[in-house]
Write a structure and sequence with these properties.
single chain; 262 residues; alpha/beta; 7-stranded parallel beta sheet; 8 helices; 7 strands; 14% strand; globular
Length: 262
């Protein structure tokens, strides 16, 4: 299937590793102009070279801390200056600390909201005018399977990411008349540094090894294994492409059947 991504321009936030990098790689593979971003230039240069080597398509990069609004504006402005517009926005962010309600003060809550909700709001605010001008656009907000089934010991993530779902569902209606599709992509147990961190927390709390945690978790996944970031990236590429003309306002799980809630 031709996804129609050749020469489309995509911004992928927080894309120097993990799921963000996987999405950027698949968009580049399909011929899109890709802008990647993260806080560390050395990591961005490394990823830029890796994506070019794998796909033959070199992404551009902008150093940015997505909790800083000026940095977000700079990513968008740099993209428009280089490529002439923005067709696709993929919002992505690392997860907040794990823990229960009694562990967190106001500052920690505000930091989580800034990272996992407000950064998405700000990025969307900056790209929508360019999408409206172009007469179409795709916004994909990456969250977590916790938006369908709350995950234990992750109250900050469960709360903030549900806010992203509410935002996306509302924007689907508000921006539909401008032919802008807004969706949520929610990963389950896909092997990244974040999952390694969370599994490590569980292993320590339960007094077992990391391998034991992973074996036990794999048994609860219908497909019997953790996912690969590339599998997430391919789903993202479809949702952000010309192949997707009529899916909007949806939360799509990429979790191998782990989540049992509807």
């Amino acid at each position: 299937m031709d996804l129609g991504l050749k020469n489309k321009t995509a911004i992928v936030m927080a894309s120097s590793a993990g799921l963000g990098k996987a999405v950027a790689t698949e968009l580049a593979r399909e011929g899109a102009n890709v802008m990647i971003s993260s806080r560390r230039e050395d990591e961005l240069k490394k990823v830029q070279a890796e994506i070019k080597s794998e796909t033959g398509n070199e992404p551009a990069y902008t150093v940015a801390d997505i909790t800083n609004y000026d940095d977000i504006k700079n990513v968008v402005n740099s993209t428009v200056e280089k490529f002439g517009g923005v067709d696709i926005l993929v919002n992505n962010a690392g997860g907040p600390p794990g823990g229960t309600f009694d562990k967190f003060d106001d500052e920690t809550w505000l930091n989580a909201i800034n990272l996992n909700l407000l950064s998405y709001i700000r990025s969307i605010r900056e790209v929508v005018p360019y999408m409206k001008k172009a007469g179409q656009g795709w916004i994909l907000n990456c969250t977590s399977s916790g938006v369908k089934q709350a995950l234990p010991n992750l109250i900050l993530s469960n709360t903030c990411r549900m806010g992203v779902v509410g935002l996306s569902k509302t924007l689907c209606d508000e921006l539909g008349g401008d032919n802008i599709r807004v969706n949520v992509l929610a990963p389950g147990r896909i092997w990244t540094d974040r999952i390694a961190y969370l599994d490590g927390m569980r292993a320590e709390k339960m007094g077992v090894t990391l391998d034991e945690i992973q074996t036990s978790t794999s048994k609860s996944i219908s497909l019997g294994r953790y996912g690969d970031p590339a599998e997430f990236g391919r789903t993202a590429a479809f949702l952000c492409s010309e192949a997707n003309t009529y899916t909007s306002g949806q939360t799509v799980l990429v979790d191998g059947g782990l989540t049992t809630a509807y």
